[in-house]
Amino acid sequence: MSNQDDSILEALSLAVAARIPVLLWGPPGTGKSSAVAAMSEALDIPHEVVIASIREPSDFGGLPVVDGDDVKFAPPRWARRLAEAGTGVLFLDEISTAPPAVQAALLRVVLERVVGDLVLPQNIAIVAAANPPDQAADGWDLSAPLANRFCHLDWQVDPTVVATGLVAGFKTPDVPQLSKGWQDQLPVTAALVGGFLAVRRSLVIAPPDERALAGRAWPSPRTWEMVARLLAAARAVDASMEARRNLVIGSVGDGAGLEFLTWLEELDLPDPESALKDPESVDFPDRGDRLYAALSAVAGAVAANPTPERWLAGWRVLERAAGHAPDVGAMAARVLAQVRPSGMSAPREAAIFVPVLKAAGLLE
């Protein structure tokens, strides 16, 4: 069951579908555990609950076992069950009450899906739940390295949803089935993130000064990559703007997230596919950051399907839009250079970008 509003459920389901680790923050007794259990049941996949606060570091790092001249680190039963199933949800409950040594042992589990000497399948979704420190039993602040591995969602209680759910039943998160080609959206969303960070370089990595805030979402190269993947998944299923907002802020925090979302709203970029079909018919923005994002999106679209025709069209777009400012198109030119179809030679439109690529160290 869940007493949560639709946008948080939608954000949770997208993170699970994209296999991005997600951490639900909320008071005890608000349905976090039951929502994850119901979601797993609806997907008909295994659901393993591990209460982090009562575990030892060896429960995640593996128990050392002497095997002849070697020492192996044996994984626990829950990890073996997930590995045998090949899919499922690992639910790490009460993660904020886990002591620092256990949190340290969780680092590889969350990021690399490694438990002892066992590597869990990539199809395993990782969801965690935490109570705010002032509401947790013997709570600890979440360590900054562990916090930076999650998309953080605030699990707030909606009294109206609770009242209705008690009578009519609570909603089960509806996890979307991402199509096989959903990651084709990734070059475009990565280009948008890259365009923003080219302007706001100080936000590439910005750990909070306060220890308590470091235990929540904050910007780093890892979390910006998470933003790109989550937005690609959101684009693939046409997710709501509120769900996208929750995912962005949940990955990089309020300040960086809101600034990025505002920047996105003001972009008004041309459609990269339209630009590739007819470069002469598209109006490109004049402002440097917007042009950078637009050209990166075009290069990303070509990289997703680099046929000879699309590759040549990409160079025509770059030459037309950035011929007067080749430095703005340098990164997009590098992408096109890297995805050159076999047997194709660089067209004349590429010549203008060669000096700036060499000067920037982007071309050998």
Automatic annotation (TrEMBL):
It holds the Pfam family AAA_5. One of its GO terms (molecular function) is ATP hydrolysis activity. Residues 18-160 form the AAA+ ATPase domain. SMART domains: AAA. PANTHER family: MAGNESIUM-CHELATASE SUBUNIT CHLD, MOXR FAMILY PROTEIN. This is AAA+ ATPase domain-containing protein.
